[in-house]
Amino acid sequence: AKSSGGGVVTGYHPRMREGLVERLELENDLRGALDRGELRLHYQPTIDLATSQVVGFEALVRWPHPTRGMINPLDFIPIAEVTGQIVPLGHWVLQEACRQAVEWSAAAGGRPLKMAVNVSVRQLDRADFAESVARVLAETGMAAGLLCLEMTESVLMTDTEANLEQLVRLKALGLTLAIDDFGTGYSSLAYLRRFPVDTLKIDRSFVERLGVIADDTALTDTIVRLGKSLGMSTVAEGIEEFGQLAALREMGCGFAQGYYFSRPIPAAEAGRLFLEGATV
Ligand code: C2E
Ligand code: CA
Ligand code: CA
Ligand code: CA
């Protein structure tokens, strides 16, 4: 199915009927969940590989559905993107993540806390996106320099001129921009250089095979070097084993996330973790 922009899905095929009904149901439930404030954020720590300290978190949305149980973001974010619900949803995520970051940092005596928030290309399409981010920063008191917006490589590949303009506006606010799942798309190095990107997040699929498949070790190493040579920082996602951590340290990767350190955790737990100044 292809989105034609206004929340209408074209390319219907009878085989899709079941999926369609389920989607419409989820879409409807999601609207209610947003209105009733039922969505939650979990937070996965980001670790500075040089110090092993928790320097911040990535906010990951969670939907505790009244009858279906916890719904995975991969099962409702794509729907929200097609319907346009991603705009209010994403706005809520940004607001809540910034509010929490300011609160936890204050509780820890003002120790800076970096917060990373996932942003859909559909949000970037909105002419007023940078403006709405500026408003959230002002309302929550979040320092722009501590906010990182994560976007996938598709930002670099479609509507490039319009996206570039939007990213320049966001950069002007003083925040940082990361390319999420880096290495899985096909963004060209030329685009990467042209766009005001600060951070490359190395996709889990590379980290997964570190030390197991020689080629992938080489690829990860190449991404870390690429980041360095472009003056960007690198974050490895999906670290589950010590061997992967050791390999990434060796390569000089700057930051890491993964189950090895911590799964995404509820807000109360994340707040405590940061307060303790935990090294993991
Ligand atoms: P992502 O941004 O690449 O986030 C990383 C995903 O990998 C998260 O899944 C996280 O729980 C999982 N993960 C982290 N460490 C490990 C590990 O060591 N091993 C394994 N196997 N998995 C790990 P999650 O929370 O289910 O989120 C899935 C995706 O949904 C995210 O991928 C992101 O693309 C999207 N998403 C989540 N929250 C938001 C949001 O607020 N807005 C938008 N636009 N997208 C979101
Ligand atoms: Ca992410
Ligand atoms: Ca990612
Ligand atoms: Ca991913």
From TrEMBL:
<feature type="domain" description="EAL">
    <location>
        <begin position="23"/>
        <end position="278"/>
    </location>
</feature>
<protein>
    <submittedName>
        <fullName>PAS domain S-box-containing protein/diguanylate cyclase (GGDEF) domain-containing protein</fullName>
    </submittedName>
</protein>
